[in-house]
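We read letters as residues; the fold follows as tokens. A sample entry reads:
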Amino acid sequence: MIVRPYYLHLLKTYRDVPLVKILAGVRRCGKSTILEMLKKDLLESGVSSDHIINMRYTSEDFDEGMTGKDMYNGIKEKMTDSGRYYLLLDEVQEVKGWEKAVNSLLENANTDIYVTGSNSKLMSSEISTYLTGRYISIPVFTLSFSEYMEFKKGSNSPAKELLNEYIRFGGFPIVALSDFDEGAAYQIVEGIYNSVVTSDITKRHNITNFDLFNRVVKFVVENVGKTFSANAIVKFLKSEGRSLSVESVYNYLEWLEKAFVIYRCQRYDLQGKSVLKTQEKFYLADPSLKYCILGFNPTSVAAMLENIVYFELRRKGYEVYIGKNETKEIDFVAVRRDERIYVQVCRNMPEESDREVANLLEIKDHYPKYVVTLDELAGGNNNGVKIVHLADFLLAEDY
């Protein structure tokens, strides 16, 4: 088992704090392994194994009709004394009423509770009802580039070569752990995607026109890193002789978000200092999701560089927006407490980077500004704008 120190450190920070720790992210991004890491760390810190209750609630492991009451009783049976118990509960969203069970265990027993799930039903109104102010949400993403390098440290490949692999194969741990060829890697990711669509979306929301849903997904995948609206999707489908309401498109996008397949990035008006509700962008949970659906095409890499940078900023705790500065667009405005950075992403220098630098220089404040590129000539700065190679940006501890 390869440790992911970022998540382990975060969980140790919140250990024994009376909050439910909720780890949520797309299927197979490593949530169960993080619980295994936590269990190992608890044992090493002196917690007795019979005071660590590790339960998995996937439909393969438990009866689909399991209720919150069943869940509560099953856990309570394992608690035989008044000592502190550490509850590691995997894929809890499969249990109807799990929120009540967890709340009761938090209130009425000596527990420290960690749960995972792959559907943001975890963040639903029921949680607000039962766990108001008593939980912390920890988003789990696929591997960062530094984690990917850790997984591949036996290969002795240089960082730039591993970066090319990372861009093509993505960061699902199951893919990174082995040396798959392109076809096998995308086949595995396609299997993950299909299980998400089948279990977390199609069944749950009773989608009958699967072909139309898939076409919407394909449109989103083809337009990663571009602003578009639900109306644009409706018009596109109409041009193909298909009919779908704007409301249905909104539903599809919301369901994909709730299954953590896509992430919405809103626009921020730098002049009006406000978040805009139109022309958002969507990014995929992992670059490999695009390639398993459309195939890998070197000419499509530019948009996926944005995708990779977006998630690196999210991993480092930033809220991330697309910047609108009058008529100019800034790829990312990243905000963390009172900090802010501006980031433009481009594949090549100098023709692309000159334009990106010019856009950044029009922002009249003193926050750090970056152009992130794949060009080997990256380095130094241009009038205070730092030009950084993607590998260096991804491996930086902070900005």
Notes: The longest helix spans residues 182-205.
